[in-house]
Design a protein that fits this description.
Length: 281
């Protein structure tokens, strides 16, 4: 392997230490940041994610309140809970764990979260602010990607960035963040012709596709920085990313592993957003 590792665990630890010390300062002013998690249904992976978020809150001196609702909960009842949390002064951030079980519709629920407590950065007001270059709450995974690039001082300005994937959660916001930092950005998706050729232009390649080992060695330029967002569980239980790690690491200059790359950053940035939400109350 020639690429150097971008270690998400190291960067996440640094972000969390910073959050911890700012939480201490807030507590000295009588403010204890609080995160409410809203989990509907019994998806085991979602339960693990939410527990990790709550545990990390407590580790950093924030408090978290979990609302675990049965899968049969109605849209009206979820909206009523969001309304209560919006008005609760002890709650600074509200996280609705996705995906929501059918027949719940996630958009009206996400849009009901107050933009001031939208620590996942998915409310249209925060999406719009990001678009205008005045970000407030940025979705956690894209924010984590930027924090990793900055931690390792990897240059962004003037670079050619290619983002594979255009989801509202990852692809579009990370493309916007790279653009604001003066990269020249191309966003690719399932209808992009000659994907390999587009990817080979990238100095910074972000893969957010959701397909195991989708980015192959021949799709990557020598010396590229490769960020693998994907989390794909293999039949043997192993987690692999969207990047064929061995082949790509032989060409890249820097690469994130899976696990231990982007994954740990997502929770760290959620903590940062919750602390920021509490700072501005
Ligand atoms: P989505 O399924 O919402 O989006 C996937 C994107 O990939 C779509 O834009 C889709 O294009 C594109 N795509 C699919 N097939 C191809 C193809 N053959 N060629 C080019 N583009 C393609 O996924 P997410 O953005 O939510 O997540 C992506 C991955 O990141 C998943 O593995 C997910 O588990 C992981 N993830 C990891 C997180 C972390 O904390 N590390 C957090 C969030 C996600 P189109 O729009 O045309 O359909």
């Amino acid at each position: 392997m020639s690429a150097q590792l971008i270690d998400g665990k190291v960067v996440a630890k640094a972000v969390k230490e910073e959050v911890r010390s700012r939480v201490e300062a807030l507590k000295a002013r009588g403010i204890r940041p609080g995160l409410a998690t809203v989990l509907v249904g019994d998806d085991p992976a979602s339960h693990v994610y939410v527990r990790n978020k709550q545990r990390t809150c407590e580790e950093l001196g924030m408090h978290s309140v979990g609302h675990n609702l049965p899968a049969t909960t109605s849209q009206v009842d979820v909206l009523a809970l969001i309304d209560r949390l919006n008005r609760d002064p002890a709650i600074h951030g509200i996280l609705v764990q996705l995906p929501l079980p059918k027949p719940l519709r996630s958009e009206p629920i996400l849009y009901a979260v107050s933009p001031d407590k939208d620590v996942d950065g998915l409310h249209p007001v925060n999406v719009g602010k990001l678009m205008m270059g005045e970000p407030r709450f940025v979705p956690c995974t894209p924010a984590g990607i930027m924090a990793m690039l900055d931690y390792y001082k990897l240059p962004i300005e003037g670079k050619t960035a290619v983002v594979v994937g255009r989801s509202n959660l990852v692809g579009k916001p990370v493309a916007m963040l790279l653009l604001h930092r003066h990269a020249t950005v191309t966003i690719c998706h399932s209808k992009t012709p000659d994907l390999a050729e587009v990817c080979r232009r990238a100095d910074i390649l972000v893969a957010a596709v959701g397909k195991a080992r989708f980015i192959r060695g021949e799709m990557v330029k020598e010396g590229a920085v490769v960020i693998d967002v994907g989390i794909n569980r293999q039949p043997d239980g192993k987690l692999v990313g969207d990047v064929d790690f061995e082949a790509v690491a032989a060409k890249a200059s820097w690469i994130t592993p899976v696990p231990g790359g982007v994954g740990p950053m997502t929770i760290a940035m959620l903590m940062q957003n919750t602390m920021l939400a509490a700072s501005t109350t």
